[in-house]
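Tutorial handout. Part one gives the primary structure; part two gives the three-dimensional structure as tokens.
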Amino acid sequence: MESKLNQLRRAMDSTTHKGEHFTKFQKMNIRKALHSNRSEKPKKPHKFVIIAISTLAICLLAFFVSIEIPVRQGASITLPEDIPDFVQESDFDTIDWERKAVEFGDRGIIGNENKSGVIGADMPSLNGQKWMWHLWGVENADLTIVGFHKESQTVHPILTNGMGWTIRAYGPINGADAHTPSSVKFPKKGEWAILLYVDGELFDELIYDINE
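Part two.
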């Protein structure tokens, strides 16, 4: 160490720094600097910190994924292959399940007053029965009837006897502007929305509870 200081002193004496310029305090600092490792590596993060941060990131990712998946699944409705093209999945997104069909008039019609209703819906049966459909504001028209089961989120035809999805509504009756009889059958009990299409346009929806 002393030899290094002597070399440094001789080098400075040969320049404009000749003479006694270092105090004892400065010499002490120089010795410390020579002993220290100037290329010290930065300290690595503690393993516990890395594990904690990684765990938090994974938990947050799992949380957001769990929020998104149910929304995506709930929006998916499978339509039967033979259903008319004008029936769209978006039609089922706007169903107002709080708007229950009610009885009106003096003939036991159950539905939405001055829009649509059914005679025979007061005793719905899973075994099949006869219904008389009534429409207001409609004259002779093609009436397409689509059943949607709330609990299973599935779409079904409810007309029987080979009627398919569409029947013809014609002639006034019971104060309605058009009517048509049909046989109906529901494949399962629960809450149903009956979507009515007139000449390919969504006309109304009837909400019934079918439990027997």
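Part three, for discussion. Confidence is low (pLDDT under 50) at residues 65-74. The radius of gyration is 42 Å.
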